[in-house]
Amino acid sequence: MQVALLYWLGFSWHIAIEDSLVFNFFVAAACLLVIHVLQFYLPQQERYWYLLVIGVVLSLISLFISKWLLVYINVNDKEYIGTLIKSLPIRFGINFLLIACISMISISWYSFQDRKKYEERRSTAKKLATDAELFKLRQQLQPHFLFNSLNSISALVGTRPEEARHMIQQLSDFLRGTIKKEETQLVTLEEELQHLQLYLDIEKVRFGHRLITNIINETETNECKIPSLLLQPIVENAIKFGLYDTIEIVSINIEIKKLDSQLVISVQNPFDPETSSTQKGAGFGLNSVQRRLYLLFARNDLVTTAAQENIFTTTIKIPQLI
Length: 322
Prior knowledge:
alpha+beta; two-stranded antiparallel ribbon; Heat Shock Protein 90; single chain; rod-shaped; 10 helices
């Protein structure tokens, strides 16, 4: 545009191109300087007026250098030099507008990049905190179950040593499976049920014929994903409130099905309304399950409980991520 304008004013193509190249070269250099500075230093909002000062200074410097160089090159062309002098205010305005525009674009771009990096760091920190809490819950689960199992073994040693030895072997298999799963956050339902069966075998040694478990599972759910070691604390909670206050046979029912994009697991156990409220314990089971599901899926509605007459039902929903 500058070449066309100078040519239209009557100057030769040589002078028009020469003027345009010199003038725009120094404007471009000033803009690149602004971009480079703002890449490493973004002023606070209350200091944006600094950019106004910088724009004026750079505009004057680039204009002075361009004018000096063009006068030096065309020292004998009085008509051109006169036009150049008269156009200095307009050239200054163009310089300033270009530098100001580049400054605003640079601030917007680098601010966006900074916010993006901040969100990435924040997301990474949040994920690390979530993973750390999940790991802590997993670590808490093992001692919680281990202490209960050791107490049961201790009670069996004197009266039923064979069963105690068998229970120790089952406990060893259970813990070995737990260690193998340590690196995996999600497992298939089939794997989880196999691990749960080890736990139930241990509890059946402890309670004998008094404990009956029924697992109703649709075949299509076997490949569904579930957080590892999630079912054991729920079933443990059902056994605790179902068997501790009675000497009768107690049936724990586990029903598993897939509804839409969720794996739905219901655990039912009988309970005595008059004594269940006085049970003492750490309350770790259901709380840990709810917390783990919240950390994994950011939802608080995945664990529900209901008591109807003397049947207590715990229902968990596991979203199946595609």
